[in-house]
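Hey L., structure's done. Input below.
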Amino acid sequence: MPRFLVVLDVDSTLIENEVIELLADAAGSGRAVAEITARAMNGEVDFEESLRARVATLAGLSESVFGEVGRLVRITPGVPEMIAGVRDAGGRVAVVSGGFHEIIDPIAAQLGLDYWRANRLEVVDGVLTGELVGAVIDGTAKADTLIEWAADFGVPVAHTVAVGDGANDLQMMAITGLAVGFDAKAPVRDEADVLMDVRDLSQLLPLLGLRG
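Output:
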């Protein structure tokens, strides 16, 4: 049986939440940020431009907000079972996200993920500046990351699976062996090989021949 590398989006895929919206709620900009997020996930606006606009509204928040928001995050049903099934079959599970390391790092460690990559928020003297640090993880970066991790794992891209829900996932979904739209927005529904509309990621296992 081939080994698979499963690469998932995070917000509204690995987790039930949109972290930028939780952070924005704490900053009092929740409604405006939710509208921008919806437009970005539907491919109506440039992702990096939209991300920087949303992050700018977080300026002035204390870095303690990461702990507060982290406690609100809920893992999507079926995630532990999916990870166990893939790992037991010799595969690896990873996430690449337009979200933020500050929230994803503890989740990835808790779940025992093999790889993860995300954006990083700038913090100066314990306060968010409303800026990002380093290159933005956008659609192109997600695709490049999937290729990088497949090479590191020693599997062909044909043995990778990309799971996502928004326009920012389309480039990695276009190159993967199996593109899974998970409770997906319109652009992804048009391009995915398989659609999953029940929010249970253990459904991925039968697609990989790992559970009947």
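The longest strand covers residues 115-124. The chain has a mean pLDDT of 95.

-- N.
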